[in-house]
Amino acid sequence: MPYLTNLPMAGQTRARAVPVNEDRPGSLGRKTFLSGAMLGIAAALTGCKRATENVATTPTNDFYKVLSRKEYDYDGMMTKLRIPNSHKQVFSTSAIIVQPGANHAALFAHMQFAMNGYDFSLGLRGPTLATLGVVAGSSVILGLNDAMWQKYQIGKRFNVAATNVYYRAKFNLDPNLSPNDPTSLYQDLSAQAVLKRAGSFMLCHNALASLAHSCAATTRTPSESVLAEMIHNLQPGFMLVPAGVTAVQLAQEHGWKVYTVA
What we know:
Number of helices: 9
Helix content: 25-40%
Structural class: alpha/beta
């Protein structure tokens, strides 16, 4: 299933396959090694140049406050992670990935597919599979409401829809329809459909702070104010946690199986 994901940020490069020396299988030839090294250095310098230009033109305050237990719902987070379901799957994503032309996010689709598999294909319908989506990186935009998407031009910034159509249900979320009814709850690949089926979401505070820094730089607004505003405008069902990686680690320690959406 083809998905679109956001492009690498400045300074990031993708891995490139380098041929091995035919005379010495399994090793790199000197010429190949040197040319590859030069390409790597050039890419790194280009990335540094871009980063420097960004800092020079749009200064940011990249400060990531470390939250204490009193500054987020620690008890709520641990209650969710300690649920006694016999099957628990956490879906971790750090990039906004959407289906081209279909207006749904890969994260919600994968969570729905997992629940459909357990409920209907395996015949285990009931409180069997628990699903949790942990959003970090650019995927935190999935947890913001339309007011934030419009004010900070989220769609244009990440080359996605103009509003958060990925959160909103497409159908009436009727659980009594057949799973193969195109308009049923089970075919609705939205966050609201996942929540209707007792799925849950946690959102990384650090990643949200990063987004706030970026938006603050382009709007000339204090990043602390932007971050506070974004926290106030989280979609229902998205729980703020100190760090996405912390939530995933805790989930593993409490018996959740990790699935990476990429």
